[in-house]
Write the structure tokens for this entry.
Amino acid sequence: MVDKTFIVEKTCPICEKTMRVVKTRSRIMVTKRDDDACTHYEDFNPYYYTVWVCEHCGFAADENTFTTKIPDRHLNLLRSVLLTRNIKIPFVAKRTVENASTAFRLALKYLEIIHGKASKKAKYAHQLAWIYRIAGDKEQETEFLQKAAEYYEEALAKEHFPIDALTDNAVVYLVAAIYRRLGDNQKATLYLSKIIGDQGVRTREPRVYDKARDLWGDMRAGRKN
Ligand SMILES: [Zn+2]
């Protein structure tokens, strides 16, 4: 069997040492997609590896953060925290739920330090919730879904969209899907109606519109996700 991961070396933007990261091969089989975009794969969970951790200084973030220039004021803040402490997070080639959870929690903590964007915090919290979902830990999944919904709401209020490939309507849909999973049908309905009640979305973003309509139908029929 071919390995689903491989190891590459990168330079840490904080301590500038050479660190190892685990990358996932692109050819892994998708088995299902949940209504909040969580993708399940055959015998493997690539979300475990989306946050990179520097084995020397403990900096943790997604690949994009590691490979894009970090503004000097953020570098100064992060270096003042990380390089004055001896945070040792050993390199792990095959992460467990705990390893992945540590990586995501650190990434969220560093975003707090630099007052990072809510949309990015939402992405980390949402992916960590998916890791717990796939691992069957309902309690932690709920905790991080709640955080993800709140960060997405903050992003909708404060940020300019689209962010990466995500439009504001796509985020409104995600928030609805998350609140439905959390059992808050009132909030889910509120967000879904913003999409379904807007003919412009139907024309411009038919995929988002259709997903919202499907979720609405499931809710009305009392179907569980
Ligand atoms: Zn480092």
Observations:
- The chain has a mean pLDDT of 95.
- DSSP finds nine helices and six strands in the chain.
- Strands lie at 5-11, 18-24, 30-33, 39-41, 51-53, 60-62.
